[in-house]
Write a structure and sequence with these properties.
With 156 residues, the chain is mainly α. The protein has one domain. Helices cover 69% and strands 0% of the residues.
C-alpha cells in the first residue's frame, strides 16, 4: 500500500488542522470565527470544483479534512457543554495552566475528528477519482448554459 494513501497516515491531517483551530480558539473569538469561515471556504471551493491543490486526491483530502474539522469542532462543543466548566464564573480559571487548556482543547477537538477522517479516507481510497472527473467534465460540456434550465442564453 502506498504510504501517501494509507488512511491512518493521511488522517493525521485532521489533528494538524485542529492544532491551528486550537490556536485560533484559545487566542481570540474573532480568530476562531475567521478560522471557521476559512474552513467553510475550503468546502465551498470543493463544491464549485475550484482546484486548491495540484491533484484530485489532495483536493479531496483537503475537503475531507475541513469536513472532519468542522465536525470535530461541533462535537467538541457538545462535549464541552455536556461536561460543563463548573465552578465560579468569576474565578481566574482554577488549577489548570494555559498549556493544559491548550492541550485539552486540542484533544477535545481532535478526538472526534481523527476517526471521522480515517473513515472518510477509507471511502475516498475506494473511489476512482479520474473517472469521476471525466464524467463531471462531460456533464459540464453538455450543459452549456450557466443559468436555470428554463432560461436559454440566446433568447430573452
Amino acid at each position: 500500500m502506498n504510504i501517501y494513501r494509507n488512511p491512518f497516515i493521511v488522517a493525521l491531517c485532521a489533528p494538524a488542522y485542529q492544532l491551528v483551530a486550537t490556536i485560533a480558539i484559545t487566542n481570540d473569538f474573532l480568530m476562531a470565527a475567521i478560522f471557521i469561515m476559512f474552513t467553510l471556504g475550503l468546502i465551498g471551493a470543493y463544491v464549485t470544483d475550484f482546484p486548491l491543490l495540484s491533484t484530485l486526491y489532495m483536493n479531496e483530502v483537503a475537503h475531507k479534512t475541513s469536513v472532519s474539522s468542522l465536525m470535530g469542532m461541533l462535537l467538541g462543543l457538545m462535549l464541552f457543554l455536556a461536561f460543563g466548566t463548573g465552578g465560579d464564573e468569576g474565578s481566574d480559571g482554577g488549577m489548570i495552566s494555559a498549556g493544559g487548556k491548550f492541550m485539552a482543547t486540542w484533544g477535545v477537538l481532535s478526538l472526534p475528528a481523527y476517526p471521522l477522517m480515517v473513515y472518510l479516507i477509507f471511502s475516498l481510497n475506494k473511489r476512482d477519482l479520474e473517472a469521476e472527473d471525466v464524467i463531471r467534465r462531460e456533464k459540464k460540456k453538455k450543459n452549456k448554459g450557466g443559468g436555470p434550465p428554463i432560461m436559454e442564453r440566446d433568447g430573452f
